[in-house]
Amino acid sequence: MSVSKSPGSLTLGPIEWALLLALAFVWGGSFFFGAVALDELPPLTVLLARVGLAAIALNIGLVLVGRSLLAYRRWWGAFLVMGLINNVIPFGLILWGQTHIASGLASILNAATPVFTVLLAHYLTRDERLTGWKLGGVLIGFAGVAAMIGPEAFIGFGDHVLGEVAIVGAALSYAFASIWGRRFRDLPPVATATGQVSASTLIVLPIVLVVDRPWDLAAPGAITWGALIGLALVSTALAYVMYFRILRTAGASNLMLVTLLVPVFAIALGVGILGETLAWRHIIGMAVIGLGLLAIDGRLPAWLGRLGVLPGSRNKDR
Asked: Which of 94, 192, 204, 237 could form a disulfide linkage to 184, CB 3.0–4.6 angstroms apart?
């Protein structure tokens, strides 16, 4: 997993920040799409529709740009592992967890992903070492998510322990996936995304056929189909092209910051489209998340250093 870049060199540039915000936006809708689909379909069937439809769309896109998965045969084993730990396990756990706990609680538990990622990246990579500012920034961002969702999300916390553990398990799986995904850095993002969701489809298809027996299920309505299409094409196919582009240039720790931003867009969509009320805790939470991102990105300690706030910073400037 070694790369030529020196430790600490993987950072978020303007393009990566724009892609990270866009990824947070499209992933912000995944909880909504999933909740709508789960009204009529079981979790595993929703999972299969998500990765299956995304695989079809991405394979067509790959052919349109003159490529094919056949050209990446030596990567198929790695795609299977990535599909398992980045799609099948976390998607399945989140969808199942959403049938047991509130979406607000699911969001805050999923936002634990950067904490797992910075710790794993410290031990499993050479160029993403853990620093006090990076860990502190993740914890600040996590606190911002908690403040934004509010204490009511914790009402009944513990009543559905298995659902809570499932979401935390998904966050841990995402963290491992972000480390494993670094090996695809030299591949085009669209090829990696296509290989991953295609492998995920192959893994989950026989499970669904045995467990859910889709032919016995009632046909879903138009709203459910719309949710599945949005979940597959927007929150999966498009999202993972951006995901692997960010991972290639900004690293695993920076990429997982997206899980801190997803609740921001989820609330913004709720206010702008559904007419929900924006409370003061939402504004405060967004500000706290922004502070955490600045700490992780290195801008906050740099500013404090120039101001002479950090111990020893004045002496370094002389």
From this structure: 192
